[in-house]
Amino acid sequence: MSLSRPLGQDPAPWPVPPASRPPFWFQGRSPRPGLAFAFGLVAALTLAAPALAANGDTLTSIRDRGSVTCGTNPIPGFGFPDSDGNWRGFFIDFCRALAAATLGDPTAFEVVPVESNSRWEALNSHTTDVNVDGSTWTLSRDTALGFDFPGVLIYDGQRFLAKPSVPEGSVKAAAGLRVCIIMGTTAEVNLRDFLKKNDLEMTVIATESDEGAWTSFLKGRCELFVNDGIGLALRNALHMTPPRVNHLMTEAISKEPLGPVVRGDDHQWLEINRWVLNVLIAAEEAGISSTTLVDPSPTADLSSEDRVFVGGPEDNAAALGLEPGWARRVIAAVGNYGEVFDRNLGKGSEIGLDRGVNALWSEGGLMISPPLQ
Question: What CATH number should be reported for the domain holding residue 331?
Fold first, then answer.
């Protein structure tokens, strides 16, 4: 079941007429300040907040169903079906890791395509168990909307992708151009703040879907496209002829900690997502990979953290509601964090991105796991 909106819609200059916009509490802005904000907050709390459920219901539903349902925004490199219809990508590998941890089978997951205007509804209606769609961890989403972010899966920042006709360098020299955005995303708010702070004027073309904004950019309805920088680089490298014909402007106009999102009504499911993510990072910190993960001898002298990957009591499986060996199954299925990044986004992929801030903390990056003790 897909909750995504129709793709490729014709855009309209910002602000979009109210009749054609989705409800403003999903947009990140209200049509009128003050009173609209109050109504928007009430609506958000009422309609977007997850329904109360008993702790552990999500894991029980997953086991009864036999699969984990993952909501994702189809973007090559992050999550996209290949020529055989099999979903692959950076976000998809996290879904595989969850399936390995909870069901013992990394293929036991289903993908529900979601857009910015349908992702919260998908979670709240239990259509998805987790959204791994590039949602930014923000104060309002983690509080007023009632969802939980288990951690940061990847750090990014919003950038401007520019047509060849736009001179390379600072976007501040590109005043007066048209820029495409997706309604209901942090990019909409960040762009407005950036333009105001730098006293710049641009014509903003707003669409309701990622694909609609990308199509508008390709067809020349705008010279700039604002979105998360890594996703823009992926599109530019994989879906342009010739590759990389467009270019990224200098500025990153925001910080975007992107991670999985779960309903705020199930602490156990939150902890499972959190520690699956942490295990991916911790394995790389410990030098444990899918190729070095071997059965230890009974007399092996292992550290307390390394024993988590053996499947003994150190993995706290019972406390998480999982079968022993869950951490080992995760690494066997997808590898450590570095392997996941390299295979989908890094040097082992078509895009060849550097790790940058997504390197381990010990290598100058931001990725760090709490101790597995």
Answer: 3.40.190.10
